[in-house]
Amino acid sequence: MNEARHWDEKAERGSSLGIRITVWVYRSLGRPLARLILIPIVTYFFVFGRSERRASQAYLERLATTPAGAEALGHAPTWRDVYRHIYEFGAMVLDRIGFWLGGPEDFEIEVHGWDELDRVAEEGRGAIFLGSHLGNFDSMRLLAHHRSPIAVHVLMYVEHAERINRVLRQLAANDGRPPPQVIPIVPGSVQHALEVRSKIQRGEVVAILADRVHPHERDRVARVELLGGTVSLPEGPFLLAGSLGCPVLMMTSLRNGNRSYEIFVERLADRLEVPRSARHEAVRAHAQDFARRLEALLLRAPHQWFNFFAFWDEDAES
Hints:
Elements: H1 16-29, H2 31-36, H3 38-48, H4 50-65, H5 67-73, H6 79-101, E1 108-112, H7 114-123, E2 127-131, H8 140-146, E3 152-156, H9 162-174, E4 182-184, H10 191-201, E5 205-209, E6 221-226, E7 229-234, H11 236-244, E8 248-257, E9 260-269, H12 279-298, H13 313-317
Parallel strand pairs: 1-9, 2-5, 2-8, 3-4, 3-5
Antiparallel strand pairs: 6-7, 8-9
Helix pairs in contact: 1-6, 3-6, 4-5, 4-6
């Protein structure tokens, strides 16, 4: 099987032209027609995206082997579940465009954990928000629109999502809106870590996706349990959060339907304790706590898990 084992080895799928066509349809003809063109796009990727289709099938089958996962799916996974899985990803991308073109006020949100967000603002210590590729992490912009007294920055590996990010930056510039506040991860450099520290010291928030191992972190992973299997999570986000001594929260946003999101905010710790004498063990414990909470949310929306590669260690090795 000659397929990419790691997510970063896969070329970015799609094209700038395809994204721009979707943007044009959304802007000129409206969201309903933009949703309609998702069908041929999703069908194309379902038919020709062999590795994505296989990864989706493997994930759904793993989910079905756990009692809670089987209950969440309601039946043994079929090709219809794979198609729905890919469709949910397309709908998420469409909503990212909608956050810019239609305006965040066009979306309904229900937030579980507003009190934690208020507490972060009152404490003034800054905070690290840990997220994942479950649901739509970009809906943090909805929170910022509705109520956000704190500046929010996103630390991310941008190379493999450059097309969509470039289009969103251009949309922001064309519409006179501030661009997404992104801190790019630069492999082999500590500049992004220094920038994160500066933001936290100013009492601001830095959001990090903590469920994918970046290329320069493959020798620094924490192996934890998820859905009855073993996965590798990056140690970096937990080490960084521990070194900053600030509150650490987890945020997940699940799509409830057309223009509707349910956002969950949980406090993982007032500060992550990572003693030097037992650094790896402490990080693994924090990563396992993150994975445990992630699994509980994943069971709420099993088709919104957007890691289309061999995520489980045993799947990657087979």
